[in-house]
Amino acid sequence: MKKEDGEGNIRMKFKGRDFLTLMDYTNEEIDFILNTATDFKNKLAKREPHEQLRGRTLAMLFEKPSTRTRTSFQAAIAHLGAQSFYMTPQQTQLSRGEPIKDTARVIDRYCDGLVIRTFEQEKVEEYAKYMESPVVNALTDLTHPCQGLADMLTIKEKKGSLKGKKIAYAGDVWNVCHSLIIASSIMGMNIYVARPKGYDPNEKIMKFAEEKAEKSGAEIVITTDLHSAVKDADVVYANTWHSMGGPEKEKEKRIRDFKPYQINANILSEAKKDAIFMHCLPGYRGEEMTDEVIEGPQSAVWDQAENRMHTEKAVLALIIP
Fold this sequence. Notes:
This protein is α/β, with parallel strands linked by helices and 321 residues long.
């Protein structure tokens, strides 16, 4: 079989599919998305046009504030030649009690896809249930698959491959952490999540990851020991201690509980000498990481932020019919 025939076969698997969680995608499919993102990144660097979705329309429904997700998606959609329509629930009849199933079916008649950033994973799934066009999860409280793709692309660029790489994660055990656990289990990375006792990953996420890890050879370790997590890590990943949409009333308690888990220069020095520092942003200097670390030579944070656009572009180009 010719290479282009094989590529065509896997490409056909994407058309019309939703992108709700990385759990719905195989190792081969995720790798194909990452390769597609790299192709788009190279085209953009060379100023080569890639308007694969010219004439398409995409709705963007955001219930949460956003900097990177909104800007990266709108830029990606523009580069692909499509039009995007940004909405909040307050600007729609959702604010007056219109059911999701009605809103979903109306959007479906106007647009070729929906990008949604919301709270409950169940909302994303309900839109997907009532829409024929693809639905993209741009963040829920449970998962953040678009961030997961950007993280994997960044690690692959900086480290050459994914399998066997050790990620030390320190921060809130929330959507980004869940997607990193899922990605690691599928792609064969080793992830060590360091957190205070009592802050544990979602049971459904862990059950999936443990089953996948048996096949991929990944190590999924949840620990209270930051030093063992960071030791010999290829990637040191910090995240906020009080995630957006999380229990804000617990903010002060979380700051106290997570204080021993700050990534500073001393902690980063315990990782491999060529380890990279990552953070999904927004970041709080002086809490989960120091200014010295995020602004230091090992920081890959800005490349990581840029890669949101390239990976989102790949997803949209692959799934929008």
